[in-house]
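Me: I'm a chemist; would you kindly supply a protein sequence with its structure tokens?

Assistant:
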Amino acid sequence: MLRGQLPWVLLLQLLGLACAQSAAHRDAAPEDLVPEATPSVPLPTAAPAIVSAPASVPEAAGGAPSGAPGAGHADLDPDNDAVVAPPEPLADCAVRLGEAKVDFRSVQFPLRQKLGNVFTCGTEQAVLYARGPEGFRFNARPQVTCRLALALARFEGIAQEEAARHLGRKIRKVTQAGTYSCRKMQRFTNMVSEHSYANAIDIKAFQLDDGKSISVLSHFGKLDVEPDRAESLFLLSLARRLYDEAVFSVVLTPFFDALHRDHFHLDLARYRLDGTR
């Protein structure tokens, strides 16, 4: 389930109550985090208004493909698993988002740090994810790192495929329960969750084109038996594909613990963790 040298106890410390409390604390900064003057760095080519995906997009800067490591999928480097910090910005973020057919605009989450110049909150590069390739409507537009926005574009495609396969319908709307949440972890350590870097999202439910809603809480199913309902098969197969196909580094479901009984936690941490089985 886990690459690298991070022990299980440390992972539990890292994750803590991050997902369950992200929505409630989304705008609250921890008392011991001191704002710095360093501003967040906007996308190099993004305008303040929503930027629509162009009909054709030039080759990514430096000739790097959209699937380059860390750009829109899990971090697969086994040597950086112990690093918990804001993700590195992408110089060609706007180009990559255009290739992924994502409409967006730049947003800012200023970096905050504690003693020792260790950044504990904020990110250098974030976007408001206005519309993705499948046209999903979110109850609240995600505000996430550029890297996570690219992963969300892949998420839309896979979710649509699984909805067609198991439900015979299309997804129209997604209910998310939190992205950026500036706070420290709740258990044992001062490390922060990926929510503190706008590098995570919690997904609670999907609404289909016939109006039916499928939620993790109501439809994930029992953990000790194989699912036989189409709704449960959809949720389970989606979660496992998101991890197995390295769309996200961390995928947590009700299999992981009771804190995730009503949502999927998806993030792009430098370590990997499979909470889908």
User: Anything to note?
Assistant: Residues 180 and 195 are 5 Å apart (CA to CA). Helices lie at 8-15, 18-21, 93-99, 146-167, 216-219, 230-244. The two ends are 9 Å apart (CA to CA). Confidence is low (pLDDT under 50) at residues 1-10, 12-48, 54-70.
